[in-house]
């Protein structure tokens, strides 16, 4: 069985691809910065943003006074009595600011490879802009170079000194002499550094937000190297990137990182890698602190494990639930190799999903109330994310009046419409005969076609939401839970899925609501929604082609009570906070990319029950398992 023993692997040194130049941006103290942009007088005051009982972020003035992210509000106040606290439960303004900044950065991109992660990170693949400008350089006069930002208008751009890198470098001492072994890559990285610097300045002067940037050859390295100098600064990972003996800058850089800090290495994988090095599980931190583990295992330590390689890692990390090829992927990451592409910019998500979790939800009347709240949020999100201003409103109004559909307010139009409505619940399992209870709560769901009336712009959201609950969600709910009582739900999720791009068809279907409905019927014809827990839509090729690829989801804040009070407030050991309730202390709205693990460094799945939560909650969560 173990071919490794018969053919021990040699430790292979992987060659790092150097074709791309990627910039990673991370806005400084983002939520605080959004509040400051609105009220500039707060800039000089210590400012903390509160969600539940926690400081989700604070400005750098507050950080100078010892405050930090994910600190308890109580502690922050004790440490800094004059801290200004602003409630940040409502994410609308942060979401809007995030979209605006993203759109601004994206407007500079030539290839639209511009990807947002969470609210405050953006990657830009600037390979094309850099390579174009490399050709324009005059090697005899690098100091007065011009960076062209437009291929069609050579006057648009900025002047810069190409003999120097902009901002900081890793390592601090670098060789910038014009010839040397890594000359070409170095020049391209220097160009990237000046572009990053220019974009950061424009962002600060025009959008009032400072940010931190990292410049390298892939998503992983650009993100990690940006962290070296924070805030309001930038760092370029300098060559050499490849060497025979490991004496290159990427190796020394990546080797000093704790394995759990590598984006793409999830919580569970990190546990396994630590155990591999230590030959036993690593110890958890005792406090509710950011950082997860007491015992740090560095990337370099893992790479030194004898016989480590893609196959060995596949055996250790592969198996149930792990994506195929995880061994090769993780082995690459340990070398700083990440071949994931920066996602192409897109205007609409493929799904909008909202959920709440509950200590106890066990009556139909409460369910109706919650479904109504979720429906209203869902509709508001659909309006915010799927509607755009219709410049041809008048023309559109004319076509609508001669259609059978009632006249719509034609100032906005749908860019895309979701074909499917999905309802998901997570029932608490009944106690086992011996009185114990199972820890893993599975989600179950039912789906049906999205009713057309949700797309009307004539009625207000509240009216549509009521109809959506009565005519679509309650019927789905009855299919999920045919009994009138006897269940207790810990979570309800309502989602609009299977997005069809309205503008993908020539003639802009989105402009004309009646045509759009006709088109929707056509699309739905080739689309069978099955009534199983796992909805596997069968799509016509045409429908498939207009499906988008990225997904995002939103989790709304949940129980307003402090988690520590929940047990007393709501009684019974059964009502111990469920993992997702803990997680909601600081859940954040985020964009999911297809690469789940790359998605968000703050969200991890529990090894034991699979519950997803931010890293800082893992310690408490693990203790909850061991206590119960
Ligand atoms: N956030 C949150 N819950 C978390 C982590 C973050 O709500 N568990 C929010 C608040 C932050 C934003 O996401 O403002 C971005 O997160 P960052 O970790 O990038 O933190 P900041 O941008 O606030 O600070 P920094 O300057 O360290 O990047
Ligand atoms: Mg940030
Ligand atoms: Mg961030």
Automatic annotation (TrEMBL):
Looking at the record's lineage, which domain of life comes first?
Eukaryota
This entry's Gene Ontology molecular function terms read: damaged DNA binding; DNA-directed DNA polymerase activity
| GO terms for biological process, alphabetical | DNA repair; error-free translesion synthesis
* Database matches in InterPro entries: DNA/RNA_pol_sf, DNA_pol_Y-fam_lit_finger_sf, Rev_trsase/Diguanyl_cyclase, UmuC
- The portions of this protein that span the membrane are none
Q: Which Gene3D superfamilies match?
A: 3.30.70.270, 3.40.1170.60, DNA polymerase, Y-family, little finger domain (3.30.1490.100)
Domain UmuC stretches: 22-266
Extract the ranges annotated as region (Disordered): 423-444
**Protein name per its UniProtKB record:** DNA/RNA polymerase
Q: What taxonomic classification does the UniProt entry list for its organism?
A: Eukaryota, Fungi, Dikarya, Ascomycota, Pezizomycotina
